[in-house]
Amino acid sequence: MARRLGIWLVRPAAQTIGQRLCTSFGGTIHKPWQDEVESQKEAFAKVYRDYSAWILVMATGIAVRFLEGLTSDKRSDPAVVVIDEGGNHAIALLGGHEGGANQLAFEVANTLGAVPVVTTATESVKPLILGIGCRKGSSAEDIEAAVRSVLGKRELNEVRELATIDLKSSEPGLLEFCAKYSLPLRWFAQEQVAQRSWVTTPSEFVRSVTGADGVCEPCALMVSPRGRLIVPKTAVNGVTVAIVEDSLIE
User: Fold this and answer.
1) Together in a domain, 87 and 110
2) Average pLDDT per run of 10 along the chain, which is 250 residues long?
3) Which of 82, 185, 219, 228 has the fewest CB atoms within 10 Å distance of its CB?
């Protein structure tokens, strides 16, 4: 079923972010300050269930107050993602699994260069992040074979997310692999990756293409700076994989 998306802005300062989100995802932008007949909370309540997903550009506290008394069942409530006006954090606030808010948070984060915040238990306890690089046109089968080879005795269900450079963000094989196993894909701008020196074996070829010494290692470590690189860059049939294990707080 197609996602019906609403984007709520609490003030004019959020219009730039709102338009970027609308350009990327479609949907309807609400600008409630243009109609001051009722409070924003009352206006939001009237249209809350007109959409299957919401992006609220506001502080989390405001979002919580807006949602007070509106939620009923996680299987039917709209997904809600909150993004601050600075575009720093995309928080999956409501409907993480059932509503698709976790995935939407990653999509919003990738679009704005923000950090996705997902707190559902099944994601938070998965310790592995995979950094991925690949040749153009690598198939989903090639990527899966490389991932499973590099994982060794570790399981795919231990993987929390994949990370790559923005040049590979639309690679069909990578997207197909992630969709097959419902794995979030996070990507970083070339400039961000180039600023990181977390590369065990620099590649002149990668530098000539991306401006960075490597892709898979720095991308994985950027997702989890407190994590530990347990498998350095390993190349399998045109796909490079690095594994970082997050240091989970006990």
Assistant:
1) yes
2) 88 95 95 85 94 96 95 89 95 86 92 89 85 94 97 94 93 96 93 85 84 90 89 95 81
3) 228
Residue of 183, 187, 139, 127 whose CA lies nearest to 163: 187
Strands (E), 66-181: 79-83, 89-94, 115-117, 128-134, 159-165
CA 15, 193, 228, 90: dihedral to nearest 10 degrees?
10
Domain boundary among the residues 106, 122, 138 is at 122
* Exposure on the CB side of residue 111, measured as CA atoms within 13 A: 20
pLDDT recorded at residue 162? 96
- How far is Cα 127 from Cα 182, in angstroms, rounded to an integer? 16
Range of the domain at 176: 125-245
Cβ-contact 218, 201 below 8 angstroms: no
Residue 250 within any structural domain of the chain: no
User: What does the pLDDT read at residue 107?
Assistant: 93
What's this model's pTM, rounded to 2 decimal places?
A: 0.79
| Eight-state DSSP code of residue 217 | H
